[in-house]
Amino acid sequence: MTTTDTTKKERKIFAAGCIIPLAALTLLLVLLAVWMIASERAPAPPPYITAAEKKVEKRIEELNSKAAHLKKSDYDIDTTVMTLFSIEKALKNSENFEQLTSFVIQKDSDLAAPDVTALKYRFFNIYKKLLDDNDDMENISSIYKVTSDALTDITSVIGYDAVSGVTFDREQATQIWQKRLAAANAEKEVKERLRNHQTEMLDLLFDFGKINARYIREWNKLCSLRDRAYLAFYEKDLDEAVSSASAAAKLAPHEKEAHILLARALTARNNETDTASAEAVLNRLLKDTQGQQAPAYLLRGVIELEKNDFEKAALDFDQAAAYYPRQQTEISDKLNLYKKRLFLNKSKEGRMIINMYRGIMTGSGFFSPDFQQARIFLKKGDKEKTRKKIFDHFFRRRLQGQWDRVLDDFRFCAEYLQDDFREIFESNKLTLSIEPAWFRNTLIVTVKNNGTTPVHNLTLLLCVRFTDMFKGDYISFPVGESVAMLPPGESVEVGRENISGITEEKLGTVKKWKDIIEYGAILISDEIIAWIAPETPKQKVQQKNNSLKQ
After folding, report:
1. Residue 429: is it exposed, middle or buried by C-beta count within 10 angstroms (0-12/13-18/19+)?
2. pLDDT digits (tens, 9 = 90+) for 317-369
3. 0.70 surpassed by pTM
4. Quick one: 363 and 435 in the same domain?
5. CA 384 to the chain's CA centroid
6. Lesser CB count within 10 Å: N end or C end of the chain?
7. Under a CB-based contact definition with an 8 Å cutoff, are residues 465 and 473 in contact?
Protein backbone atom coordinates (compact mmCIF):
# COMPACT_ATOMS: atom_id res chain seq x y z
CA MET A 1 0.00 0.00 0.00
CA THR A 2 1.41 3.36 -1.04
CA THR A 3 1.69 6.37 1.18
CA THR A 4 -1.09 8.05 -0.79
CA ASP A 5 -3.48 5.15 -0.21
CA THR A 6 -2.72 5.15 3.51
CA THR A 7 -3.45 8.88 3.72
CA LYS A 8 -6.79 8.48 1.93
CA LYS A 9 -7.78 5.66 4.29
CA GLU A 10 -6.88 7.72 7.34
CA ARG A 11 -8.94 10.64 6.04
CA LYS A 12 -11.98 8.38 5.59
CA ILE A 13 -11.63 7.04 9.13
CA PHE A 14 -11.32 10.59 10.48
CA ALA A 15 -14.38 11.74 8.52
CA ALA A 16 -16.40 8.78 9.75
CA GLY A 17 -15.24 9.52 13.27
CA CYS A 18 -16.57 13.09 12.94
CA ILE A 19 -19.84 12.18 11.20
CA ILE A 20 -20.91 9.50 13.68
CA PRO A 21 -20.77 11.79 16.77
CA LEU A 22 -22.39 14.60 14.75
CA ALA A 23 -25.18 12.27 13.64
CA ALA A 24 -25.62 11.05 17.18
CA LEU A 25 -25.79 14.63 18.43
CA THR A 26 -28.30 15.49 15.72
CA LEU A 27 -30.43 12.50 16.61
CA LEU A 28 -30.21 13.44 20.27
CA LEU A 29 -31.37 16.98 19.50
CA VAL A 30 -34.27 15.65 17.40
CA LEU A 31 -35.31 13.28 20.19
CA LEU A 32 -35.03 16.11 22.70
CA ALA A 33 -37.23 18.34 20.52
CA VAL A 34 -39.82 15.57 20.12
CA TRP A 35 -39.81 15.01 23.88
CA MET A 36 -40.22 18.73 24.55
CA ILE A 37 -43.11 18.96 22.07
CA ALA A 38 -44.71 15.90 23.59
CA SER A 39 -44.28 17.31 27.06
CA GLU A 40 -46.05 20.51 25.97
CA ARG A 41 -49.19 18.58 24.95
CA ALA A 42 -52.55 20.20 24.53
CA PRO A 43 -54.57 20.08 27.73
CA ALA A 44 -56.59 16.86 28.11
CA PRO A 45 -60.08 17.80 29.36
CA PRO A 46 -61.57 16.10 32.43
CA PRO A 47 -63.76 12.98 31.90
CA TYR A 48 -67.05 14.86 32.41
CA ILE A 49 -66.11 17.14 29.50
CA THR A 50 -65.24 14.21 27.24
CA ALA A 51 -68.49 12.45 28.16
CA ALA A 52 -70.54 15.52 27.19
CA GLU A 53 -68.80 16.36 23.88
CA LYS A 54 -70.77 14.01 21.62
CA LYS A 55 -74.11 15.19 23.01
CA VAL A 56 -73.10 18.81 22.53
CA GLU A 57 -71.92 18.19 18.94
CA LYS A 58 -75.22 16.48 18.09
CA ARG A 59 -77.27 19.27 19.62
CA ILE A 60 -75.31 21.93 17.70
CA GLU A 61 -75.96 20.10 14.42
CA GLU A 62 -79.69 19.97 15.20
CA LEU A 63 -79.77 23.66 16.09
CA ASN A 64 -77.89 24.69 12.94
CA SER A 65 -80.39 22.75 10.84
CA LYS A 66 -83.33 24.32 12.67
CA ALA A 67 -81.89 27.86 12.48
CA ALA A 68 -81.54 27.61 8.71
CA HIS A 69 -85.34 27.41 8.36
CA LEU A 70 -86.38 29.42 11.43
CA LYS A 71 -89.47 31.57 11.31
CA LYS A 72 -90.74 33.85 14.04
CA SER A 73 -93.71 31.55 14.57
CA ASP A 74 -91.38 28.61 15.24
CA TYR A 75 -90.28 29.76 18.69
CA ASP A 76 -92.01 30.99 21.83
CA ILE A 77 -90.68 34.22 23.27
CA ASP A 78 -91.61 33.25 26.86
CA THR A 79 -89.70 29.96 26.55
CA THR A 80 -86.79 31.75 24.90
CA VAL A 81 -86.46 34.28 27.71
CA MET A 82 -86.80 31.44 30.24
CA THR A 83 -83.83 29.77 28.51
CA LEU A 84 -81.79 32.96 28.73
CA PHE A 85 -82.71 33.28 32.39
CA SER A 86 -81.74 29.65 33.06
CA ILE A 87 -78.26 30.33 31.65
CA GLU A 88 -77.88 33.30 33.99
CA LYS A 89 -79.07 31.20 36.95
CA ALA A 90 -76.74 28.32 36.08
CA LEU A 91 -73.71 30.61 35.96
CA LYS A 92 -74.73 32.17 39.25
CA ASN A 93 -75.59 28.95 41.10
CA SER A 94 -73.03 26.47 39.75
CA GLU A 95 -69.96 26.06 41.91
CA ASN A 96 -67.68 24.58 39.24
CA PHE A 97 -67.47 23.48 35.61
CA GLU A 98 -68.73 19.98 36.38
CA GLN A 99 -72.02 21.35 37.72
CA LEU A 100 -72.21 23.76 34.79
CA THR A 101 -71.68 20.90 32.33
CA SER A 102 -74.60 19.01 33.89
CA PHE A 103 -76.74 22.04 33.07
CA VAL A 104 -75.34 22.35 29.53
CA ILE A 105 -76.33 18.82 28.51
CA GLN A 106 -79.92 19.26 29.72
CA LYS A 107 -82.11 19.53 26.64
CA ASP A 108 -83.98 22.80 26.26
CA SER A 109 -87.51 23.13 24.94
CA ASP A 110 -87.94 22.94 21.17
CA LEU A 111 -89.83 26.24 21.47
CA ALA A 112 -86.70 28.13 22.57
CA ALA A 113 -85.01 30.15 19.79
CA PRO A 114 -82.01 28.10 18.55
CA ASP A 115 -79.49 30.96 18.76
CA VAL A 116 -80.29 31.25 22.48
CA THR A 117 -79.96 27.54 23.16
CA ALA A 118 -76.69 27.54 21.19
CA LEU A 119 -75.12 30.03 23.62
CA LYS A 120 -74.52 27.45 26.33
CA TYR A 121 -73.03 25.00 23.82
CA ARG A 122 -70.68 27.70 22.52
CA PHE A 123 -69.62 28.42 26.09
CA PHE A 124 -68.98 24.70 26.64
CA ASN A 125 -66.77 24.53 23.52
CA ILE A 126 -64.66 27.38 24.88
CA TYR A 127 -64.26 26.34 28.48
CA LYS A 128 -63.45 22.73 27.56
CA LYS A 129 -60.22 24.11 26.01
CA LEU A 130 -59.33 25.85 29.26
CA LEU A 131 -59.40 22.72 31.40
CA ASP A 132 -56.82 20.02 31.91
CA ASP A 133 -57.47 16.79 33.75
CA ASN A 134 -54.15 17.31 35.54
CA ASP A 135 -55.23 20.68 36.97
CA ASP A 136 -55.65 20.74 40.71
CA MET A 137 -58.87 22.02 42.30
CA GLU A 138 -57.34 25.42 43.01
CA ASN A 139 -56.54 26.03 39.35
CA ILE A 140 -59.94 24.79 38.17
CA SER A 141 -61.66 27.06 40.70
CA SER A 142 -59.57 30.00 39.49
CA ILE A 143 -60.51 29.36 35.86
CA TYR A 144 -64.20 29.13 36.78
CA LYS A 145 -64.08 32.30 38.85
CA VAL A 146 -62.37 34.29 36.09
CA THR A 147 -64.86 33.22 33.40
CA SER A 148 -68.06 33.46 35.47
CA ASP A 149 -67.12 36.77 37.14
CA ALA A 150 -66.03 38.25 33.83
CA LEU A 151 -69.37 37.30 32.27
CA THR A 152 -71.25 39.04 35.09
CA ASP A 153 -69.06 42.15 34.88
CA ILE A 154 -68.97 42.43 31.10
CA THR A 155 -72.75 42.12 30.69
CA SER A 156 -72.96 45.26 32.83
CA VAL A 157 -71.19 47.28 30.09
CA ILE A 158 -73.48 45.97 27.35
CA GLY A 159 -76.42 48.29 26.88
CA TYR A 160 -79.36 48.79 24.58
CA ASP A 161 -79.88 51.93 22.61
CA ALA A 162 -83.42 52.38 21.26
CA VAL A 163 -82.11 54.08 18.10
CA SER A 164 -78.91 52.29 17.19
CA GLY A 165 -79.50 48.96 18.89
CA VAL A 166 -77.08 47.10 21.17
CA THR A 167 -74.07 49.09 22.31
CA PHE A 168 -70.98 47.92 24.12
CA ASP A 169 -67.46 49.03 24.91
CA ARG A 170 -65.07 46.28 23.83
CA GLU A 171 -62.02 48.05 25.20
CA GLN A 172 -63.65 48.33 28.63
CA ALA A 173 -64.71 44.69 28.46
CA THR A 174 -61.16 43.62 27.59
CA GLN A 175 -59.86 45.56 30.58
CA ILE A 176 -62.39 43.81 32.83
CA TRP A 177 -61.26 40.42 31.53
CA GLN A 178 -57.59 41.25 32.01
CA LYS A 179 -58.23 42.60 35.49
CA ARG A 180 -60.02 39.40 36.49
CA LEU A 181 -57.21 37.37 34.96
CA ALA A 182 -54.48 39.31 36.77
CA ALA A 183 -56.25 38.82 40.09
CA ALA A 184 -56.71 35.08 39.58
CA ASN A 185 -54.82 32.75 41.87
CA ALA A 186 -53.62 30.38 39.15
CA GLU A 187 -50.36 29.04 37.72
CA LYS A 188 -48.63 30.82 34.85
CA GLU A 189 -49.48 28.07 32.36
CA VAL A 190 -53.18 28.21 33.32
CA LYS A 191 -53.30 31.99 32.87
CA GLU A 192 -51.68 31.58 29.47
CA ARG A 193 -54.49 29.24 28.45
CA LEU A 194 -57.01 31.90 29.44
CA ARG A 195 -55.14 34.56 27.46
CA ASN A 196 -55.04 32.33 24.38
CA HIS A 197 -58.84 32.12 24.34
CA GLN A 198 -59.53 35.70 25.40
CA THR A 199 -60.81 36.87 22.00
CA GLU A 200 -63.11 33.86 21.60
CA MET A 201 -64.51 34.37 25.10
CA LEU A 202 -65.13 38.08 24.60
CA ASP A 203 -66.89 37.39 21.28
CA LEU A 204 -69.21 34.97 23.07
CA LEU A 205 -69.95 37.40 25.87
CA PHE A 206 -70.86 40.15 23.43
CA ASP A 207 -73.03 37.81 21.39
CA PHE A 208 -74.78 36.82 24.61
CA GLY A 209 -75.46 40.49 25.34
CA LYS A 210 -76.76 41.22 21.85
CA ILE A 211 -78.99 38.16 21.66
CA ASN A 212 -80.27 38.77 25.19
CA ALA A 213 -81.15 42.40 24.40
CA ARG A 214 -82.97 41.48 21.18
CA TYR A 215 -85.24 38.88 22.75
CA ILE A 216 -85.81 40.84 25.95
CA ARG A 217 -87.04 43.74 23.83
CA GLU A 218 -89.53 41.43 22.11
CA TRP A 219 -90.55 39.90 25.46
CA ASN A 220 -91.10 43.32 27.01
CA LYS A 221 -93.55 44.14 24.23
CA LEU A 222 -95.45 40.92 24.95
CA CYS A 223 -95.42 41.60 28.70
CA SER A 224 -96.83 45.08 28.11
CA LEU A 225 -99.81 43.70 26.19
CA ARG A 226 -100.44 40.97 28.75
CA ASP A 227 -100.19 43.44 31.63
CA ARG A 228 -102.74 45.65 29.90
CA ALA A 229 -105.09 42.68 29.57
CA TYR A 230 -104.70 41.85 33.28
CA LEU A 231 -105.38 45.45 34.32
CA ALA A 232 -108.39 45.76 32.02
CA PHE A 233 -109.89 42.54 33.35
CA TYR A 234 -109.35 43.71 36.93
CA GLU A 235 -111.14 46.96 36.11
CA LYS A 236 -113.91 44.94 34.39
CA ASP A 237 -113.17 46.58 31.03
CA LEU A 238 -113.76 43.32 29.18
CA ASP A 239 -113.57 44.81 25.67
CA GLU A 240 -110.06 46.12 26.37
CA ALA A 241 -109.09 42.85 28.08
CA VAL A 242 -110.12 40.88 24.98
CA SER A 243 -108.36 43.34 22.66
CA SER A 244 -105.03 43.36 24.56
CA ALA A 245 -105.01 39.60 25.16
CA SER A 246 -105.75 39.01 21.45
CA ALA A 247 -102.84 41.25 20.45
CA ALA A 248 -100.50 39.42 22.85
CA ALA A 249 -101.63 36.02 21.57
CA LYS A 250 -101.07 37.13 17.98
CA LEU A 251 -97.58 38.42 18.82
CA ALA A 252 -96.64 35.12 20.49
CA PRO A 253 -98.74 32.25 19.07
CA HIS A 254 -97.07 29.57 21.23
CA GLU A 255 -97.25 31.29 24.61
CA LYS A 256 -99.92 30.25 27.12
CA GLU A 257 -100.61 33.09 29.54
CA ALA A 258 -102.20 35.53 27.07
CA HIS A 259 -104.29 32.73 25.55
CA ILE A 260 -105.70 31.82 28.98
CA LEU A 261 -106.39 35.51 29.64
CA LEU A 262 -108.15 35.82 26.29
CA ALA A 263 -110.39 32.83 26.94
CA ARG A 264 -111.21 34.07 30.45
CA ALA A 265 -112.12 37.55 29.19
CA LEU A 266 -114.28 36.11 26.41
CA THR A 267 -116.21 33.86 28.81
CA ALA A 268 -116.75 36.80 31.18
CA ARG A 269 -117.91 39.17 28.41
CA ASN A 270 -120.17 36.47 26.90
CA ASN A 271 -121.25 38.29 23.74
CA GLU A 272 -122.99 36.35 20.98
CA THR A 273 -119.84 34.76 19.51
CA ASP A 274 -117.60 34.92 22.59
CA THR A 275 -118.30 31.41 23.85
CA ALA A 276 -117.42 29.83 20.51
CA SER A 277 -114.29 32.01 20.24
CA ALA A 278 -113.19 31.04 23.76
CA GLU A 279 -113.71 27.33 23.02
CA ALA A 280 -111.59 27.64 19.86
CA VAL A 281 -108.77 29.32 21.80
CA LEU A 282 -108.85 26.66 24.53
CA ASN A 283 -109.02 23.68 22.16
CA ARG A 284 -106.09 25.05 20.15
CA LEU A 285 -104.15 25.69 23.36
CA LEU A 286 -104.73 22.13 24.60
CA LYS A 287 -103.73 20.68 21.24
CA ASP A 288 -100.66 22.78 20.41
CA THR A 289 -98.90 23.45 23.71
CA GLN A 290 -97.12 21.45 26.37
CA GLY A 291 -97.55 22.11 30.09
CA GLN A 292 -99.79 24.59 31.92
CA GLN A 293 -102.91 22.86 30.58
CA ALA A 294 -104.85 22.84 33.85
CA PRO A 295 -106.29 26.39 33.47
CA ALA A 296 -107.39 25.58 29.91
CA TYR A 297 -109.28 22.47 31.02
CA LEU A 298 -110.88 24.45 33.84
CA LEU A 299 -112.10 27.25 31.56
CA ARG A 300 -113.50 24.74 29.10
CA GLY A 301 -115.35 23.13 32.01
CA VAL A 302 -116.77 26.54 33.00
CA ILE A 303 -118.17 26.96 29.47
CA GLU A 304 -119.79 23.52 29.70
CA LEU A 305 -121.14 24.34 33.16
CA GLU A 306 -122.83 27.48 31.81
CA LYS A 307 -124.46 25.26 29.16
CA ASN A 308 -125.65 22.95 31.98
CA ASP A 309 -123.62 20.10 30.45
CA PHE A 310 -122.64 18.92 33.92
CA GLU A 311 -121.08 15.62 32.85
CA LYS A 312 -118.58 17.19 30.44
CA ALA A 313 -117.89 20.04 32.87
CA ALA A 314 -117.12 17.62 35.72
CA LEU A 315 -114.73 15.66 33.48
CA ASP A 316 -112.78 18.79 32.53
CA PHE A 317 -112.68 19.96 36.16
CA ASP A 318 -111.34 16.55 37.21
CA GLN A 319 -108.64 16.77 34.54
CA ALA A 320 -107.70 20.27 35.67
CA ALA A 321 -107.42 19.01 39.26
CA ALA A 322 -105.13 16.19 38.10
CA TYR A 323 -102.91 18.54 36.06
CA TYR A 324 -102.44 21.38 38.54
CA PRO A 325 -99.95 19.48 40.76
CA ARG A 326 -98.09 18.26 37.66
CA GLN A 327 -97.38 21.77 36.40
CA GLN A 328 -96.07 23.21 39.67
CA THR A 329 -92.37 22.97 38.74
CA GLU A 330 -93.00 24.85 35.50
CA ILE A 331 -95.09 27.44 37.32
CA SER A 332 -92.37 27.95 39.93
CA ASP A 333 -89.84 28.60 37.16
CA LYS A 334 -92.19 31.07 35.50
CA LEU A 335 -92.71 32.89 38.79
CA ASN A 336 -88.93 33.13 39.05
CA LEU A 337 -89.02 34.74 35.61
CA TYR A 338 -91.45 37.29 37.04
CA LYS A 339 -88.65 38.22 39.44
CA LYS A 340 -86.90 39.77 36.44
CA ARG A 341 -89.74 42.31 36.70
CA LEU A 342 -89.33 43.16 40.37
CA PHE A 343 -90.62 46.65 39.66
CA LEU A 344 -94.12 45.14 39.63
CA ASN A 345 -93.93 44.79 43.43
CA LYS A 346 -93.63 48.57 43.73
CA SER A 347 -97.15 49.42 42.55
CA LYS A 348 -100.62 48.27 43.43
CA GLU A 349 -101.27 47.50 39.78
CA GLY A 350 -98.08 45.48 39.50
CA ARG A 351 -98.92 43.42 42.61
CA MET A 352 -102.35 42.78 41.14
CA ILE A 353 -100.80 41.43 37.92
CA ILE A 354 -98.53 39.06 39.86
CA ASN A 355 -101.37 37.92 42.10
CA MET A 356 -103.72 37.26 39.17
CA TYR A 357 -101.04 35.18 37.46
CA ARG A 358 -100.44 33.18 40.63
CA GLY A 359 -104.16 32.59 41.03
CA ILE A 360 -104.65 31.33 37.48
CA MET A 361 -101.63 29.07 37.47
CA THR A 362 -102.07 27.55 40.93
CA GLY A 363 -105.80 26.90 40.80
CA SER A 364 -106.97 29.59 43.21
CA GLY A 365 -110.37 31.25 43.49
CA PHE A 366 -112.26 31.06 40.19
CA PHE A 367 -109.62 28.66 38.83
CA SER A 368 -110.10 26.06 41.59
CA PRO A 369 -111.39 22.76 40.13
CA ASP A 370 -112.96 21.88 43.49
CA PHE A 371 -114.85 25.17 43.72
CA GLN A 372 -116.17 24.75 40.18
CA GLN A 373 -117.23 21.19 41.00
CA ALA A 374 -119.00 22.62 44.05
CA ARG A 375 -120.96 24.92 41.73
CA ILE A 376 -122.16 21.87 39.77
CA PHE A 377 -123.46 20.19 42.92
CA LEU A 378 -125.02 23.44 44.11
CA LYS A 379 -126.92 23.75 40.79
CA LYS A 380 -128.10 20.18 41.28
CA GLY A 381 -129.27 21.01 44.80
CA ASP A 382 -126.83 18.61 46.52
CA LYS A 383 -125.54 20.76 49.40
CA GLU A 384 -123.73 17.90 51.14
CA LYS A 385 -121.49 17.22 48.11
CA THR A 386 -121.03 20.96 47.61
CA ARG A 387 -119.77 21.25 51.19
CA LYS A 388 -117.40 18.32 50.67
CA LYS A 389 -115.88 19.91 47.55
CA ILE A 390 -115.27 23.16 49.44
CA PHE A 391 -113.33 21.25 52.08
CA ASP A 392 -111.51 19.25 49.36
CA HIS A 393 -110.14 22.50 47.95
CA PHE A 394 -108.69 23.75 51.21
CA PHE A 395 -107.29 20.36 52.17
CA ARG A 396 -105.64 20.18 48.71
CA ARG A 397 -104.12 23.57 49.49
CA ARG A 398 -102.74 22.14 52.71
CA LEU A 399 -101.30 18.99 51.10
CA GLN A 400 -99.65 20.90 48.24
CA GLY A 401 -98.44 23.75 50.46
CA GLN A 402 -99.91 26.40 48.14
CA TRP A 403 -100.97 29.29 50.31
CA ASP A 404 -100.09 32.39 48.29
CA ARG A 405 -103.58 33.02 46.98
CA VAL A 406 -105.69 31.69 49.83
CA LEU A 407 -107.49 35.05 50.09
CA ASP A 408 -108.59 34.62 46.46
CA ASP A 409 -110.24 31.40 47.61
CA PHE A 410 -112.22 33.26 50.26
CA ARG A 411 -113.26 35.96 47.82
CA PHE A 412 -114.56 33.35 45.39
CA CYS A 413 -116.50 31.63 48.16
CA ALA A 414 -117.99 34.95 49.24
CA GLU A 415 -119.19 35.64 45.68
CA TYR A 416 -120.46 32.20 44.69
CA LEU A 417 -120.96 30.01 47.76
CA GLN A 418 -121.01 31.77 51.10
CA ASP A 419 -124.73 32.58 51.23
CA ASP A 420 -125.45 28.86 51.16
CA PHE A 421 -122.60 27.83 53.49
CA ARG A 422 -122.14 30.69 55.89
CA GLU A 423 -121.60 28.31 58.80
CA ILE A 424 -118.42 26.99 57.16
CA PHE A 425 -116.75 30.36 56.69
CA GLU A 426 -117.73 32.41 59.70
CA SER A 427 -116.68 31.94 63.30
CA ASN A 428 -116.69 34.47 66.13
CA LYS A 429 -115.69 31.77 68.58
CA LEU A 430 -112.00 31.76 67.67
CA THR A 431 -109.52 34.59 68.29
CA LEU A 432 -105.96 35.17 67.22
CA SER A 433 -102.99 36.91 68.82
CA ILE A 434 -99.36 37.40 67.78
CA GLU A 435 -96.33 38.67 69.65
CA PRO A 436 -92.64 39.02 68.83
CA ALA A 437 -89.95 36.64 70.06
CA TRP A 438 -87.16 38.40 71.91
CA PHE A 439 -84.06 39.28 69.85
CA ARG A 440 -85.37 37.47 66.76
CA ASN A 441 -87.49 38.61 63.85
CA THR A 442 -90.03 35.94 64.70
CA LEU A 443 -93.79 35.89 65.32
CA ILE A 444 -95.34 33.77 68.07
CA VAL A 445 -98.88 32.89 67.01
CA THR A 446 -101.61 31.80 69.42
CA VAL A 447 -105.23 30.78 68.79
CA LYS A 448 -107.97 30.56 71.43
CA ASN A 449 -111.20 28.57 71.16
CA ASN A 450 -113.92 30.59 72.90
CA GLY A 451 -116.64 28.19 71.75
CA THR A 452 -118.23 25.19 73.40
CA THR A 453 -117.02 22.48 70.99
CA PRO A 454 -113.50 21.32 70.11
CA VAL A 455 -111.81 22.12 66.79
CA HIS A 456 -109.96 19.20 65.19
CA ASN A 457 -107.02 18.93 62.78
CA LEU A 458 -106.44 22.66 62.44
CA THR A 459 -103.87 24.43 60.25
CA LEU A 460 -103.29 28.17 60.41
CA LEU A 461 -102.39 30.54 57.56
CA LEU A 462 -101.28 33.94 58.76
CA CYS A 463 -102.19 36.84 56.46
CA VAL A 464 -100.14 39.99 57.11
CA ARG A 465 -100.02 43.45 55.62
CA PHE A 466 -96.68 45.22 56.14
CA THR A 467 -95.63 48.82 55.62
CA ASP A 468 -95.33 49.84 51.96
CA MET A 469 -98.04 47.34 51.01
CA PHE A 470 -101.27 48.60 49.50
CA LYS A 471 -104.53 48.38 51.41
CA GLY A 472 -106.16 45.02 50.83
CA ASP A 473 -102.87 43.37 49.81
CA TYR A 474 -101.56 40.66 52.14
CA ILE A 475 -98.94 37.96 52.08
CA SER A 476 -100.03 34.56 53.39
CA PHE A 477 -97.85 31.86 54.93
CA PRO A 478 -98.39 28.80 57.14
CA VAL A 479 -97.37 28.91 60.80
CA GLY A 480 -96.22 25.88 62.75
CA GLU A 481 -97.52 22.34 62.38
CA SER A 482 -101.11 21.14 62.28
CA VAL A 483 -102.76 20.85 65.72
CA ALA A 484 -104.70 17.66 66.44
CA MET A 485 -107.34 19.29 68.68
CA LEU A 486 -108.09 22.64 70.30
CA PRO A 487 -110.52 22.04 73.20
CA PRO A 488 -113.17 24.65 74.07
CA GLY A 489 -111.96 27.43 76.36
CA GLU A 490 -108.29 26.70 75.70
CA SER A 491 -105.47 28.38 73.76
CA VAL A 492 -102.66 26.85 71.77
CA GLU A 493 -99.41 28.33 70.53
CA VAL A 494 -99.65 27.24 66.92
CA GLY A 495 -96.04 28.05 66.10
CA ARG A 496 -93.26 30.55 65.61
CA GLU A 497 -92.35 31.94 62.22
CA ASN A 498 -89.33 34.02 61.22
CA ILE A 499 -90.58 36.70 58.82
CA SER A 500 -87.21 37.83 57.42
CA GLY A 501 -86.91 35.18 54.71
CA ILE A 502 -90.64 35.19 53.94
CA THR A 503 -90.83 38.92 53.29
CA GLU A 504 -87.58 39.01 51.35
CA GLU A 505 -88.80 36.27 49.01
CA LYS A 506 -92.32 37.65 48.51
CA LEU A 507 -91.69 41.41 48.69
CA GLY A 508 -88.02 41.71 47.75
CA THR A 509 -87.18 43.34 51.10
CA VAL A 510 -86.90 42.21 54.73
CA LYS A 511 -89.73 43.37 57.00
CA LYS A 512 -89.76 43.34 60.80
CA TRP A 513 -92.30 43.12 63.60
CA LYS A 514 -92.64 46.91 63.74
CA ASP A 515 -93.62 46.91 60.03
CA ILE A 516 -96.86 44.96 60.60
CA ILE A 517 -99.92 47.14 59.90
CA GLU A 518 -102.70 44.60 60.18
CA TYR A 519 -103.11 40.85 60.24
CA GLY A 520 -105.55 37.99 60.47
CA ALA A 521 -105.50 34.28 59.76
CA ILE A 522 -107.33 31.58 57.89
CA LEU A 523 -107.99 28.48 59.94
CA ILE A 524 -108.59 25.19 58.18
CA SER A 525 -110.06 22.36 60.24
CA ASP A 526 -112.40 19.40 59.99
CA GLU A 527 -115.35 21.52 61.13
CA ILE A 528 -114.82 25.02 59.72
CA ILE A 529 -112.66 27.01 57.30
CA ALA A 530 -112.82 30.47 58.77
CA TRP A 531 -111.23 33.89 58.87
CA ILE A 532 -109.86 34.46 62.37
CA ALA A 533 -109.68 38.10 63.39
CA PRO A 534 -107.09 39.47 65.84
CA GLU A 535 -108.06 39.56 69.47
CA THR A 536 -109.57 42.96 70.37
CA PRO A 537 -108.41 45.02 73.37
CA LYS A 538 -111.78 44.31 75.03
CA GLN A 539 -111.28 40.57 74.61
CA LYS A 540 -107.76 40.82 76.05
CA VAL A 541 -109.07 42.61 79.15
CA GLN A 542 -111.89 40.08 79.55
CA GLN A 543 -109.43 37.19 79.21
CA LYS A 544 -107.17 38.77 81.84
CA ASN A 545 -110.11 39.22 84.27
CA ASN A 546 -111.19 35.62 83.75
CA SER A 547 -107.65 34.46 84.51
CA LEU A 548 -107.59 36.51 87.74
CA LYS A 549 -110.95 35.03 88.86
CA GLN A 550 -109.59 31.55 88.37
Report:
1. middle
2. 999 998 888 777 666 666 567 777 778 877 888 888 888 888 888 888 899 99
3. yes
4. no
5. 40
6. C
7. yes
